[in-house]
C-alpha cells in the first residue's frame, strides 16, 4: 500500500505495508510511479519518499516475484519517474533498504537514514539481475568497486559505512527523519519551480 500526502508544494510518498516490511508489489510500484509522474503538473516541487515501521523496504514481495514481478518493467517506471521529476527528491529511509527497493532510493537526489539501517542487494546469491538502472546509479554514488561489493560480493553495510561511501548523505534519529527531510527541502519549497528545475539540471 502507498499513501501520498500533499502539503503545499511538498508531496510525501509513504510505503505503508509495515506488517510485510514494506515489501514491494507491482501495484505499489505503479502507485509510486504515478505519484512522481503527476507531481510537477500538480505544483509539487519536492518529493519525500519514506516508509512506515522499522524497515524502509525488504525489496520485492516474494509471492509477487514468484508470479513474475522480478522482470516487470514497473520497477524501471517507478525509479525513472522519481529520477525524471524536475524538483528535489529526498529518500527518508526509515530503516533497512534491501534488494529491488534500492532502485527508488537510488533515483532520489538525497538519502537520509537512521543509525540502525542496513543496506544490501543480494542479487548474486539469489541468481537475479538488478534492475537495469540500478548498477549505474549505484556506481555513480559509491564507485564501481564498492558497487560490485554490494551487487557481486553480497556486502551488507551499516549506516556509518553507507555514509562514508556516499550511499546516504546524512544519519539522523528515526523520529526526526521526515522533519530532517523538510529542513533539507526548505529552500526548494520556497523557490520558483523553474529555479529548482534549473539548478537540478545543472547538477546532473
Feature tags:
204 residues, alpha/beta, globular
How can the largest sheet be summarized? 6 strands, mixed
Write down the secondary-structure element order: EEHEEHHEEHEEHHHEHEHH
Question: How would you sum up the global shape?
Answer: globular
Poorly predicted segments = none
Spatially, the strands of the biggest sheet line up as 1-2-3-5-7-10
Q: Count up the domains.
A: 1
**Which radius of gyration do the C-alpha atoms yield?**
16 Å
Kindly report the CATH topology.
2-enoyl-CoA Hydratase, Chain A, domain 1
Average pLDDT works out at 96
CATH class: Alpha Beta
Query: Structural class of the secondary structure composition?
Result: alpha/beta
The helicity comes to 40-55%
Whole-Å distance between the termini?
31 Å
Assess the beta-strand content as a share of residues.
Answer: 15-25%
Give a short synopsis of this structure.
Helix content is 42%, strand content 20%. With 204 residues, it is an alpha/beta fold. It has a single domain (2-202), classed as 2-enoyl-CoA Hydratase, Chain A, domain 1, CATH 3.90.226.
If you had to describe this structure to a student in words, what would you say it looks like?
The structure is a single chain. By secondary structure, the protein is of the alpha/beta class. The protein has one domain: Alpha-Beta Complex (2-enoyl-CoA Hydratase, Chain A, domain 1), CATH 3.90.226. The chain is built from ten helices and ten strands. It has helices spanning 26-37, 62-66, 74-84, 102-106, 123-126, 134-142, 144-151, 159-165, 177-190, 193-202, and strands at residues 2-7, 10-15, 46-51, 55-57, 88-92, 96-98, 110-113, 118-120, 157-158, 170-171. The strands form two sheets. The chain has a six-stranded mixed β-sheet, sandwiched between helices. Strands 4-6-8-9 form a four-stranded mixed β-sheet. Strand 1 (2-7) and strand 2 form a beta hairpin. Helix 1 runs parallel beside helix 3 (74-84) and helix 6 (134-142) crosses helix 7 (144-151). The longest helix is centred in the C-terminal third of the chain and has 14 residues, at 177-190. The chain is globular and about 45 Å long. The two termini are 31 Å apart. The model has no long low-confidence stretch (mean pLDDT 96).
Amino acid at each position: 500500500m502507498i499513501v501520498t500526502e500533499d502539503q503545499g508544494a511538498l508531496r510525501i510518498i509513504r510505503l505503508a505495508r509495515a506488517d510485510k516490511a514494506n515489501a514491494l508489489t507491482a501495484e505499489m510500484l505503479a502507485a509510486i510511479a504515478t505519484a512522481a509522474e503527476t507531481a510537477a503538473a500538480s505544483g509539487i516541487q519536492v518529493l519525500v519518499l519514506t516508509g512506515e515501521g522499522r524497515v524502509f523496504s525488504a525489496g520485492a514481495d516474494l509471492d509477487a516475484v514468484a508470479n513474475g514481478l522480478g522482470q516487470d518493467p514497473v520497477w524501471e517506471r517507478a525509479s525513472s519517474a522519481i529520477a525524471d521529476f524536475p524538483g528535489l527528491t529526498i529518500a527518508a529511509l526509515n530503516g533497512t533498504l534491501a534488494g529491488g527497493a534500492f532502485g527508488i532510493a537510488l533515483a532520489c537526489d538525497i538519502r537520509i537514514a537512521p543509525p540502525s539501517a542496513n543496506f544490501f542487494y543480494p542479487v548474486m546469491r539469489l541468481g537475479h539481475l538488478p534492475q537495469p538502472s540500478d548498477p549505474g546509479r549505484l556506481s555513480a554514488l559509491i564507485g564501481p568497486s564498492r558497487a560490485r561489493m554490494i551487487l557481486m560480493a553480497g556486502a551488507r553495510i551499516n549506516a556509518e559505512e553507507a555514509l562514508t561511501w556516499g550511499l546516504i548523505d546524512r544519519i539522523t534519529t528515526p523520529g526526526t527523519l521526515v522533519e530532517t527531510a523538510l529542513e533539507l527541502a526548505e529552500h526548494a519549497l520556497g523557490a520558483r519551480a523553474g529555479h529548482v528545475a534549473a539548478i537540478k539540471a545543472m547538477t546532473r
